[in-house]
Amino acid sequence: MTTSQGQMREAYPILGEAYRYRSDEQDGGFVFSLEGDDPVVLDATITLTIEARQAGEGLCGTESGRSLPFAWAWVGAELHLWLDGALFVFQRVETRRRGGSATTEAPGDILAPMPGAVLEVLVGEGDRVERNQTVVLMESMKMELVITAPRAGVVRRVSVEPGQQVDRGMRLLELGPEGGTGDSG
Q: What value does the mean pLDDT of the chain take?
């Protein structure tokens, strides 16, 4: 049995607090546990049993006994999970300072989470976007993927166009800071 553990923070659809995670590989599948400090839910531990069908795909058994289609892909330091058609993005959390808080920063590049086709680009260069605003629609593995901005900012560059095939990790958009226009007095 192979075990990995650490901390991850949900980056999409909601920027959240860090979760402790543990992944145990066993019998051709995985048991994945997330444990957080949710003040509303006393037992904030989620356990998912994942049966791998092929690389990056499988079925996920929930605690309620449901079996849902499931896919995953690592995009840099982000783990992109598709569970029953919904996209979740988690970022690894690194603690660099002793006694400091764990931090992650949203990168400037918005990357393709998996290979597919660009269906629609909903923003243009110079457009201001809000965190979690839909910026690109893609199709991959017969699923429509909604790609959103990880933070508020200004679109610096659009790197793709509708109909274009993209590989996993390919830049779709480059997002700059909100005040990145260099205004002077």
A: 75
